[in-house]
């Protein structure tokens, strides 16, 4: 059985392709490789539906001939295929225009060892997995709810080599389980998910219990008027929104005047206090719970990179090319996003107790970017929404559509409390208590 | 009608007449199974026989090769030219009524047998949790080849011609005063698929798709404001003739003028409007509100953990009022140019065309061999699809298209009689709930309609409605000459997530008293 490639095997393939590229006339070249195995099981209607395992290999070679660039990807590591791959890249380069954003490939660099790999995740015992999923299905049957969910375990090895002598190899893994439980009368639904790089750290039973509990507690929701309300967002709900913020930290887009972090007269908003002063966002490949590959996609060694510190936008992401244009160093990330409070975390229970009137939100669904200037998003609540009255959860509420700016949501005046951060890859995110969040219509969906 | 407009209309409608079938010499061996790839056939037979020996009551295998070529540019430079090839096999088995699947990039008999062993082991491990045993609807045994219609193989066209096309496209937009940026791309996809089942089917297919797309941006550096005009949903199941024959440059120039106007447009006043929706946006409304709600797997809860369920229930077919009586929608995997058009689906069922909504009544589902028997149907409509050899095939949307009015209803006819309305064109933001009731759609270009006449552009507008209310409010549908085919290349569904390319044909249509938001003033 083929499994993920070891360091020596992976780098040997890279070296072979590099040699073919140089022999074909490439003046500069980089080769990257990913070898992966994915095991998954899906269930719905309280039974297993589909389940499988797949293994693959992707080899990409990028070459430059006279600053002209060509790139080819294949998944065949046979000797003939590797030569064809390199030759085709050179052929493309020869007929392409000059690549104006060419930056010479990296030379030798020392990287830290990656932390986010567990062998158990790479080699799933399918009988043991079925036994764990039975716990979830039994919990659903016992509570008379209908369970659906997805269990996955992926392990990858990535390797890269450049004509200028850079060599790197990292392994990573990720296991996850998500469960949706729906009440028999169709009026309640709950969802919970968790992930970890180590399959053994996935608490299958707890994930099932959380989803079942939410389904039971969310039955027979009542409608409320869609308007602006105070809210508490559970970590999952925060994660569902924050991807739009983390995707906006690109320096080039901001410099070009088409980012929420673009300012007037061609400037950016770096240095401005845009967010609540307790809120910090950083990237750290060595984070104990949410480690990441210790290299950027450009090959720059990743290190802790502050992005937002105590509410101030501190850094945007510079690729090697854009850093060269702006005469500065490329950034050592981001490779993940750790969102934290600078003050002691507030528990969800304490947030609820401190809420006079407001909504408790489990998650969001179909979130889309409405306005890239202000990061206004639209989407809907899903799988657990409750009204809080005088510090206690009062009753479940029908789902609502929101239109809300992420920048306004995290503004200095709007964040009232921040919880402990929880891993929801590639984020570590806390629960948030917010003063105002805008809803625009009611949804009939359960 | 100007010749250019005639050509545009012709291509946009699917271009069936121009698309003579063309099989290049290199692909001839692939197309002929008897003379075809012996290693592939050997691997398929090895997998199927090993699965049978281990107790599988049914097995099928897809041995596919996907080729892609992408050229991406911005302004006056090429950002990236890349090609990729991915080949491998994926085997599906039924053991004790439970599915198992295994896939590998190695295509040889030994790897195929190993995949069979893995798939059977997975199915056996899960069988105790498969409380309903899978039963498949009957399907014909088919041994054949099928190739999508195209005139010019994009992979045979020199790279410099493709780059020159994009550079001209970019210049057409950049020549408009006030345009700051353009990003453009052409993507070509060549799927070569081989299907073999334990029931004896052996099907070889080739599908060629062409995806030109661009987005124009105008930025006001002094104020920090910017607007974009994307044209990203024009992909079709056609060849390079689509790049050569369709008037892309005038589209780019028009997009340039539109984005400059959009930067200066006044904000929309929120409220209720009569809206006319152009096919360039209506296709997406059909996709989200009709395409996904009529997927039978969703109605059974199989997607509950991800894409969601449906407001339609399994017993609703033939009974439920979906929209106004003038609304007719068909599922169609035979539509010329349609991104979800194919000869046979990924379990060997011949492509089909069938009514989904007839005279406003929901009448039928999208089905597969596993789903059809669950609603008492003897045959599948052919909706099983996997986006790769490495993906588990599962129910995916066919082309779902709104039928035009029988008479010649023009866009002006739809505008007439509207006192206060909006005309919505192009892709904006789309979002819909997990049961496909509540949606919010934007547009790339939205203009006022006042007393039946098209007026100034507005910005920050989005319309919100509820699927049954929206389709019930439809009181005007364009005639046959207004029908266009648009499509989305990356419709997401399933776990692990898979993408699907799917088209929706439609004329413009009018909807009464729809809620419109000003998204910047909430």
Instruction: Kindly give the count of domains of chain A.
Output: 2
- What structural category arises from helix and sheet content of chain B? alpha+beta
Envelope shape of chain A: globular
Q: What's the number of helices of chain B?
A: 11
Shape of chain B: globular
What does this structure look like?
The complex is a heterodimer of chains A (446) and B (522). Chain A is of the alpha+beta class. Chain A is 23% helix and 38% strand. Chain A has ten helices and 19 strands. In chain A, strand 12 (357-371) and strand 13 (376-389) form a beta hairpin. Chain A starts with 6 loop residues before the first helix and ends with a strand. Chain B has 522 residues and is of the alpha+beta class. Chain B has two domains: 3-264, PmbA/TldD fold (2-Layer Sandwich); 267-518, no CATH class. Chain B contains eleven helices and 25 strands. In chain B, strands 8, 9, 16, 17, 18, 19, 20, 21, 22 and 25 form a ten-stranded mixed beta sheet that branches. In chain B, strands 1, 2, 3, 4, 5, 6 and 7 form a seven-stranded mixed beta sheet that branches. In chain B, 58% of the residues are buried. The model of chain B is unreliable at 1-35 (pLDDT under 50). Chains A and B meet through strand 1, strand 2, strand 3, helix 2 and helix 4 of A and strand 2, strand 3, helix 4, helix 5 and strand 6 of B.
């Amino acid at each position: 059985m083929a499994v993920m490639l070891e360091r020596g095997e992976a780098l040997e393939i890279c070296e072979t392709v590099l040699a073919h590229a140089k022999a074909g006339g490439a003046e500069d070249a980089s080769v990257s490789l990913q070898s992966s195995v994915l095991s998954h099981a899906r269930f719905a209607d309280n039974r297993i539906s589909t389940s499988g395992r797949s293994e693959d290999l992707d080899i990409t070679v990028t070459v430059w001939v006279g600053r002209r660039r060509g790139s080819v990807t294949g998944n065949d590591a046979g000797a003939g295929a590797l030569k064809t791959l390199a030759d085709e890249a050179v052929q493309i380069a020869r007929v392409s225009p000059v690549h104006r954003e060419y930056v010479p490939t990296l030379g030798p660099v020392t990287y830290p060892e990656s932390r986010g790999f567990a062998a158990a995740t790479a080699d799933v015992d399918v009988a043991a997995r079925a036994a764990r999923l039975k716990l979830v299905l039994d919990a659903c049957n016992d509570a008379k709810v209908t369970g659906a969910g997805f269990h996955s375990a992926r392990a990858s090895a990535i390797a890269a080599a450049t004509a200028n002598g850079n060599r790197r190899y990292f392994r990573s893994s990720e296991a996850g389980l998500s469960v949706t439980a729906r009440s028999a009368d169709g009026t309640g639904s709950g969802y919970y998910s968790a992930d970890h790089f180590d399959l053994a750290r996935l608490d299958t039973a707890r994930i099932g219990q959380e989803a079942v509990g939410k389904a039971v507690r969310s039955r027979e929701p009542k409608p409320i008027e869609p308007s602006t309300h105070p809210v508490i967002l559970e970590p999952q709900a925060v994660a569902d929104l924050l991807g739009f913020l983390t995707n906006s930290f690109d320096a080039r887009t901001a410099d070009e005047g088409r980012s929420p972090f673009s300012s007037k007269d061609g400037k950016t908003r770096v240095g401005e206090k845009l967010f609540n002063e307790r809120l910090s966002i950083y990237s750290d490949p060595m984070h104990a719970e949410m480690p990441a590959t210790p290299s950027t996609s450009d090959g720059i060694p990743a290190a802790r990179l502050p992005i937002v510190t105590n509410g101030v936008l501190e850094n945007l992401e510079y690729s090697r090319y854009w850093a060269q244009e702006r005469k500065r160093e490329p950034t050592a990330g981001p490779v993940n996003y750790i969102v934290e409070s600078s003050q002691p975390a507030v528990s969800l229970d304490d947030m609820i107790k401190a809420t006079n009137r407001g909504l408790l939100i489990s998650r969001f669904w179909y979130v889309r970017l409405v306005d890239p200037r202000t990061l206004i998003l639209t989407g809907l609540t899903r799988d657990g929404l409750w009204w809080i009255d005088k510090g206690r959860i009062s009753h479940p509420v029908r789902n609502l559509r929101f239109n809300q700016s992420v920048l306004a949501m995290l503004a200095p005046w709007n964040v009232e409390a921040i919880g402990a951060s929880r891993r929801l890859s590639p984020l570590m995110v806390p629960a948030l208590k917010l003063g105002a969040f805008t809803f625009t219509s009611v949804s009939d969906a359960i | 009608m100007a010749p250019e407009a005639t050509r545009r209309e012709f291509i946009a409608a699917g271009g069936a007449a121009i698309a003579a079938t063309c099989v290049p010499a290199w692909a001839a061996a692939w197309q002929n199974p008897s003379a075809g790839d012996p290693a592939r056939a050997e691997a398929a037979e090895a997998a199927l026989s090993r699965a049978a020996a281990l107790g599988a009551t049914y097995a099928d295998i897809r041995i596919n090769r996907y080729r892609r070529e992408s050229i991406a540019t911005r302004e006056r430079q090429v950002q990236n030219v890349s090609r990729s090839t991915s080949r491998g096999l994926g085997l599906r088995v039924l053991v004790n009524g439970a599915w198992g699947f295994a896939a590998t990039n190695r295509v040889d008999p030994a790897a195929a047998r190993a995949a069979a062993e893995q798939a059977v082991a997975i199915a056996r491990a899960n069988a105790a949790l498969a409380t309903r045993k899978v039963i498949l609807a009957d399907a014909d045994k088919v041994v054949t080849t099928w190739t999508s219609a195209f005139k010019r193989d994009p992979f045979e066209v020199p790279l410099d011609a493709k780059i020159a096309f994009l550079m001209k496209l970019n210049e057409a937009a950049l020549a408009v005063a006030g345009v700051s940026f353009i990003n453009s791309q052409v993507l070509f996809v060549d799927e070569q698929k081989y299907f073999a089942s334990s029931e004896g089917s052996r099907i070889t297919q080739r599908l060629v798709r062409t995806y030109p797309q661009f987005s124009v941006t105008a930025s006001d550096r002094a104020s920090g404001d910017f607007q974009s005009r994307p044209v990203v949903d024009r992909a079709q199941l056609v060849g390079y003739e689509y790049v050569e024959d369709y008037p892309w440059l005038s589209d780019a120039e028009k997009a340039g003028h539109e984005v400059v106007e959009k930067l200066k447009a006044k904000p929309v006043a929120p409220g209720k409007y009569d809206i006319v929706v152009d096919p360039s946006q209506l296709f997406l409304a059909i996709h989200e509100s009709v395409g996904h709600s009529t997927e039978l797997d969703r109605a059974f809860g199989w997607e509950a953990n991800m894409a969601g369920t449906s407001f339609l229930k399994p017993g609703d077919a033939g009974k439920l009022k979906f929209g106004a009586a003038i609304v007719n929608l068909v599922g169609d995997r035979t539509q010329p140019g349609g991104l979800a058009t194919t000869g046979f689906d990924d379990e060997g069922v011949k492509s089909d065309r069938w009514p989904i909504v007839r005279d406003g009544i929901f009448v039928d589902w999208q089905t597969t061999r596993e789903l059809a028997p669950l609603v008492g149907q003897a045959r599948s409509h052919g909706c099983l699809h996997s986006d790769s050899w490495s993906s588990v095939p599962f129910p995916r949307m066919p082309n779902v298209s709104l039928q035009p009015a029988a008479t010649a209803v023009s866009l002006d006819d739809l505008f007439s009689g509207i006192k206060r309305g909006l005309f919505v064109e192009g892709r904006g933001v789309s979002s819909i709930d997990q049961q496909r009731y509540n949606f919010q759609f934007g547009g790339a270009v939205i203009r006022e309609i006042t007393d039946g006449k098209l007026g100034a552009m507005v910005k920050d507008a989005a319309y919100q409605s509820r699927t049954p209310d929206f389709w019930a409010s439809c009181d005007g549908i364009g005639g046959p000459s207004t029908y266009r085919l648009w499509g989305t290349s990356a419709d997401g569904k399933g776990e692990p997530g898979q993408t699907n390319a799917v088209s929706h044909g439609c004329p413009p249509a009018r909807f009464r008293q729809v809620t419109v938001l000003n998204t910047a003033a909430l």
